[in-house]
Amino acid sequence: MFRDLNINNDRPVYLQIKDYIKELIIKGILQKDVKLPSTRELGEILNVSRNTIILAYEYLEDEGFIRIVKGRGAFVSDIKIKPQDNFNLSWDEKINDYARFAERLDIIKNEIKWEKGMISFKSISPDSSLFDMDEFKKAFLNRISMEGDKILNYGYAQGYKPLIEYLLKYMENKGVDVEGKEILITNGFTEGFDIVVSAITNKGDKIICENPTHNTAIKIMKLHELDIHGVEMDDDGMNINKLEEKLYKEEFKFVYIVPSYHNPTGIVTSPEKRIEIFNACRQRGVPLIEDGFNEELRYSGSHIAPIISLNGKGNGVIYLGSFSKILFPGMRIGWILADKDLISVLESIKRSRNIHTSFLDQAILYEYLKGGNFEKYLKRARKEYREKFEIAYKAAKELIPCRDIKGEGGLHIFVELRDINARDVLFECCKNGVIFTPGDIFYTDGKGKNTFRLGFSRVSKDEIIKGFKVIGDVVRKMEG
Amino acid sequence: MFRDLNINNDRPVYLQIKDYIKELIIKGILQKDVKLPSTRELGEILNVSRNTIILAYEYLEDEGFIRIVKGRGAFVSDIKIKPQDNFNLSWDEKINDYARFAERLDIIKNEIKWEKGMISFKSISPDSSLFDMDEFKKAFLNRISMEGDKILNYGYAQGYKPLIEYLLKYMENKGVDVEGKEILITNGFTEGFDIVVSAITNKGDKIICENPTHNTAIKIMKLHELDIHGVEMDDDGMNINKLEEKLYKEEFKFVYIVPSYHNPTGIVTSPEKRIEIFNACRQRGVPLIEDGFNEELRYSGSHIAPIISLNGKGNGVIYLGSFSKILFPGMRIGWILADKDLISVLESIKRSRNIHTSFLDQAILYEYLKGGNFEKYLKRARKEYREKFEIAYKAAKELIPCRDIKGEGGLHIFVELRDINARDVLFECCKNGVIFTPGDIFYTDGKGKNTFRLGFSRVSKDEIIKGFKVIGDVVRKMEG
């Protein structure tokens, strides 16, 4: 039976031998008290050195699978796995409504999937080829040499102190007065938003957001069974009259907005509109949750400060930041900047959910940021995405018959068709190897059936044109 | 004003200059349309090269803070941060009961804190000096060279495929039949347990666990408002009669157990008891949640298979695994092994909470494991912890007057005093520079006031003796 072992190059040979014998014992092929071949014998059978076998046996003994008796040899231990009658359940009946709802709202599972050769405009994640691997490696090696033992052991729920300090300074540089405020590091925006919603809402509470808005935010709010009120968008952001009207009529737990390169419309809320929204919330005492989504990607024009910077020492705005949308999303690092006492409560929730965000990742990111690499990366990324945006916007205007195209930069544009269902268009495009994200998933009220989002960050310039042509042809045909 | 800039070695100089000027603009010290000094002038003022200033201005323009007019110079842009009336809220009134409860259950916030010079037996986290940094670095560099662009971009909610495959094989090697089962990667045990509880329980549901048990599990179950029924422990695990009695009297949503080096008692549930517990759950159709906590740390005797290995192709056991308790806790990687369809639902919940666990960390861990480093590490760690355990157990027996000391290995022992309150002992010990974890926090019914846990993994052998002496003296004095 030992001859059946196929040794490969994936793992040290002695460990492959150890695992193989373990398997034979676990499966009951080698039973209790059976004597294993001598190390010399097995070495010959497997054509490896005797030392390799000695090492394998040592590990087997260490893991409790064999015992080695001096002068007599190696014997299989008493591994008590006596298979019992199988215990089977119908999990279908055990899974609760919340879990089923999470499954139903999971668009990744329910939308058309990318297949090889397709041009996909679904993604708005960054183009990894812009990442600077050398600087990333350096950041890792520096940090691990300095304090590898610390960052690989348990850390603190609030986050890695140097990163928190860096981000406080970073937010100050956006014009925020951080006095009386604190930062909690989260696993990206998603966790940050979920924690905030968990802390300040109860089932059935009314909240306001833009309509359409970020689908993940809608999903989280639905999972918390909130009563979502969408306010329609003008070209410069949320319609202020509708917002004020709503705020004055009913009680809301918070207003959630994405002021920069809004997902999905790409609209940048104007500085004037930011002030109006801020004051509307202030006057009604309704917390404002500001999603800092992609604001770093500003391509042109003057810097526009986040809404939280309007609030001086005030505590009514919660800012959710994330690099993970544009830089290293695989690491999942975001942050919440808010009132100190609130952050302290959110920290306890964070701890109850997953103790803390990876300290390794936080430490690498800190080292990377500190060295100025983020600025350098952004310079490259802005240039690249600006070019792509300009090509995409122009091409969409030319190639796709529609009522309106929105977008001012960022990583996507948003198309409003005349009176054609975007899912029908998607169905036809898919046959021709092009997919995108239907807009209805971003709406709070079932509208937007004639809209879709085109993410261009990971599509080459040529394929942008090629893909848009396909979409345009389908739309033209359907318009008849 | 430019002379006030203090240049340090932390960041590239041009970025420090950029940040400084940004700050002056943000604060309104440099106002709209103000002309900045020429690059030559500022270079002289700051005593840096003109090129450094050119670069700083380039970044300032790129970020939208200044505009550079050819032949005329650099001018401050219109940064519209018009401070508004402060928006202040009383967050105290906005924070809900759930969040307050999370805060109240947050032992880190409510227990005595370590201060410099103290001997702390609170921690049961691994001794970082046993980590193999060189192999860890290699694993990072290998993976990042192979697929850095992939693992730093968005991944999949279920986890990093090669790690999942590795863990399936790993569980097979513990005797588990993985057919019909799947793995979900989580941010450690804590997230895994929270997700499972979220998916299969509703407020008020009854569940069974050992009494005492892992405090984090109690916290999570309390936050889900479950009705927790503790079953007392015998020396070989849960009292089976009491378990069966409970199971036959009422409906329970699940039974949660920690069969190896049980937290806090250190008890290893015997193979026979494992079979009895499994069959009791099977007969009543109650899912069994098995916490694989520290089972890798077995010091001596035959390998004891996890309970899930008794179940063949059955699906009634959910296994929660985690390396993060013994290896690299800072990375927060655990897994759930369970029925395939159940995992698919849990995956959707995971996605709704934080998209996925860091792909960087998963990829490094995979590379590290694949190379056989975990086995090598365990060999070292087992040896070290066995020695410490033996010293600690013996020293506690000798030095601390008590009714019973439990523990069979792992990273901690558990002391039951005669009739003395452990918190009183802690209070006195703390004055003498020794702290530990009072046992009451592990009990489901307010008992255990005369118990405490002594974690020894991060305390030197000398300090174990020294610390136990202090505890023993305090106890002796209180016993009078």
UniProtKB/TrEMBL annotation, chains A, B:
Highest rank taxon of the organism: Bacteria
Keywords, in A-Z order: DNA-binding, Pyridoxal phosphate, Transcription, Transcription regulation
Residue ranges of domain HTH gntR-type in the record: 11-79
GO molecular function: catalytic activity; DNA binding; DNA-binding transcription factor activity; pyridoxal phosphate binding
Annotated Pfam families: Aminotran_1_2, GntR
This protein's record includes keyword Transcription regulation: yes
Record InterPro entries: Aminotransferase_I/II_large, HTH_trans_reg/aminotransferase, PyrdxlP-dep_Trfase, PyrdxlP-dep_Trfase_major, PyrdxlP-dep_Trfase_small, Tscrpt_reg_HTH_GntR, WH-like_DNA-bd_sf, WH_DNA-bd_sf
Family: In the C-terminal section; belongs to the class-I pyridoxal-phosphate-dependent aminotransferase family.
Protein name in the entry: GntR family transcriptional regulator
Organism: Fervidicella metallireducens AeB
